[in-house]
Amino acid sequence: MDCLPLLCTFAVCSAVISQSLDRKRFVVEGAVRPYGDGQYEYMHPRPGALHVSELTSIAVREGDTVIPDNLDSLFNVTGEKSRQVKGRTVLARDNKTVVFYADQPFALEENVSVKFGPGLRVRRSERRKKEHEAGCYEWSFWIRTEYGSASVQTILPFDYLDEKNEQEAIELGSIPMNRYRTLPTWAAKWRPSPEGEKAALDPKNKENKAIRDGELYYFGVGGNYGEHIGQSVITTREGDLVWWVKASAGAGMLGATQNGRLALWDQRPNDGAMAVYEVNSTYQVVDRHQMGHGYPLDYHNAFFDEEGNTILTGKTKVNGVLHNVVHVLDASTNVLLEWRSIDDFIDDADPILPGEADNGDVYHINNAERTPDGNLIISLRTCNLVLLISGKTGRILWRMGGRTSDFTFIGEDMDPPFFGQHDARQMANGNIIMYDNGRRWDIGGMRPSRVLELKLDLEKMTATRVWSFTHPSKLSSMCCGGIQIVDNGKGRPQTVLIGWGNGGPFFTEVTHEDRPRIVREFEGLAAHQPLLHHWEGSSTERPRLLLCSDANMQAVEGSRSTVGLQDWTIHFSFNGVTGISKWRLYVGNDSDVSLQRPLIERTKTAFEEIITLQELVDSMAAKNVTPTGDSNATFTDLYVRVVPVKRGGELLRPSKALKVPMAVSSPSAQPVPCSCYQPDIGRREHMDRPKSGAGSAVVDMAAVNECAELCMTSDTCETFFFFEDTGECELDETRDKKRGGLHSLKGVISGRRNCLEDMR
Q: Are the CB atoms for 144 and 51 separated by under 8 Å?
């Protein structure tokens, strides 16, 4: 159908703008239609756009609710090489955006022409049912010359269990986490820092119940570099571990979603690219998100808004330079909005001067999220720039920082106002708050890192420093970090949660007041963006239970030292489960341990509970308990099971039975050194390994030790993997110097050959 003259002009939107938004601080756009000769709120790709993905969709949004009639006739698409392009047209979940999907990818280096309309009818007023028909429009864009993928940052090599990790464990001192054996020995560990210890003694913090209560849980992820790569944790607000996971390929946790799930980024088996996964309260994957249009995901950010949309960031390479892409996707994965740096950063509008693009990653996006006025705030670290992007049109509304800033900055130490920043966001009062690193990898020597809060005046285009916090140690972080304003409830003061990145403590919580004071602080894990959030975790697995000995097995003057019952320890935990108040321990003479009468009941004190075999035997003697029920009977093996008990008395799933050979205290007993075994750690490829039905009901550490012995006596084995469900022992010739290949996997116990050799 040919385009006809406009039958009517668009009417000015009569929607009432919320009076709660201060126009000095927020951009209130109203009805805006900058595209298609003033007819459309949004068009993608933009007219004349270059380097467009061959997998792109084509989208048009008039701005009002679409009457979904004859949508298939709206788009007429042709390509220089593709000729007439066949496809389908859908109405997105917002009921405003119509999207065309080509049946086949566009040809590289071709010019694509679009004729849109007529026939798009919208309802301008729901109350009056007033209809309007938008006119037609023609435009074209160019498909990129080649696929330019953005590479994931190189994972640095780290030995499976190296001297550096052992040394750091010593430096942290005698903390409970150093004795945990249901986690790998190289798992991240932390403790209260000196500043945190001071804060714990501060009378103001003791008196403030709002800051002390533990109803929120901390979500943290190690950096995408170094020994903590791929490690994510959930802890209580007081720093007690709740959940630990190691994801391969440097994956990690992004936080909690609006519907109470966890968001993780990873590349799972059979996935061709990195994705964001949502997991439920039992840590099972229930949803998956990827960038649209074939762009690779950037792992810094995932934001889930109240309308059910997902905001993701990605990258594309153009002429050797990495450009940033931001997508707003609805629940059906339609791209409602795409912003690309290459569309706006042209000539004098480019925040990077010619010649500064030598390292390729010259913009480096590290977050994108909704603002209270419905727009998007974006942080670009390498060019020291924060952008406000229209949530309607995708156009830049203002620029802050860097060489193209629209603002004049007011206050002390504001030249430059921020440098290498992370996690910029707009608060409910319109202020902008961010983590100002004060330096970058490539440029050092600026100033200490800080949290910076700026008050905007959009009439005068000024940004005034109104609050900041610099760590007492004047620490400086070249990479990563983030902040969160914590609402502690009605009548309770706000606090600010700070993740310092690679240069500081695990996390710091400070009061958001004129003279901020530290409320709590932990050190040991270099975390990225922090988050406090409500959480209730459970599990489809069983508690982890194992037996080992930390005693010195080294020979003394040619003879092995004797290991007694007090040297053998039973360790048990329930990874990821909240609300456990106590544990019950049961014993029996076979794997079918009766759960009628507990031998020991103890209050939960930490993530992992530990008892010695001596304690176990003494408890049995005190209660005149024998596994057979016959006090005159003798036995060689003992079986132990534990049951976690939640607050209120609910009994959770019992553990498997742990086989405890009571001959372990004899001089001839084969040692099971704790430090040589990494529980529930396998390789990425093991995730595809077929399961064997119900699996074994017994945890047999002697069988694990036999697997380790086979590795030690082999001429080629460097790393072993023992599968509890089948008893299979896998010997691997690689030492696994890159932990990027290791992944949390229930029921796999692994270790390296030279650890056992060192213990003999």
A: yes
89-93, 651-655, 698-702, range with the lowest pLDDT:
698-702
Which domains are assigned to the chain? 42-154 (2.60.40.3780), 542-669 (2.60.40.10), 676-759 (3.50.4.10)
Query: Which is more confident, 181 or 258?
Result: 181
Name the DSSP class of 206: H
Q: DSSP readout, 653-685?
A: PPPPEEEEEGGGGSTTPPP-BGGG-EEEEEEGG
Phi-psi region of 184 (alpha: psi -120 to 50; beta: other; left: phi over 0): beta
Between CA 304 and CA 310, with CA 309 as vertex, the angle to 5 degrees is 55
The Cα 511–Cα 11 span in angstroms is 49
Retrieve residue 171's tokens.
Answer: 């430096």
Indicate the burial class of 201 (C-beta count within 10 angstroms; 0-12, 13-18, 19 or more).
exposed
Indicate the average pLDDT of the chain: 84
Q: Please tell me which residue, 94 or 225, carries the higher pLDDT value.
A: 94
Residue spans of alpha helices (H) in 99-248: 163-171, 194-201, 203-207, 209-212
- Asked whether the beta carbons of 724 and 699 are under 8 A apart, the reply is yes
SS3 619: helix
Tokens coding 665? 């205290």
Sheet with 482-486, edge to edge strand ranges? 191-192, 518-523, 507-511, 495-499, 482-486
Q: Are 313 and 295 in contact (CB under 8 A)?
A: no
Mean pLDDT of 77-84: 96
Q: Which helix (H) or strand (E) holds 638?
A: strand 637-646
Among 735, 739, 721, 679, which Cα is nearest to 251's? 739
Query: Is the CB of residue 521 less than 8 Å from the CB of residue 199?
Result: yes
CB-based contact 495:509 (threshold 8 Å): yes
- What are 637-672's pLDDT values in tens digits? 889 999 999 998 999 999 999 998 766 555 555 667
What is the residue-wise DSSP string for 415-482?
SSS-SS-EEEEE-TTS-EEEEE-S--SS---S---EEEEEEEETTTTEEEEEEEEE-TT----SS--E
One-letter amino acid for residue 654 of the chain: P
Helices and strands (DSSP H and E) totals, the chain: 8, 51
- Cβ–Cβ under 8 Å, residues 466 and 453: yes
In degrees rounded to 5, what are phi and psi of residue 722?
Answer: -110, 125
Half-sphere exposure of 19 (CA within 13 A, CB side): 0
pTM: 0.88
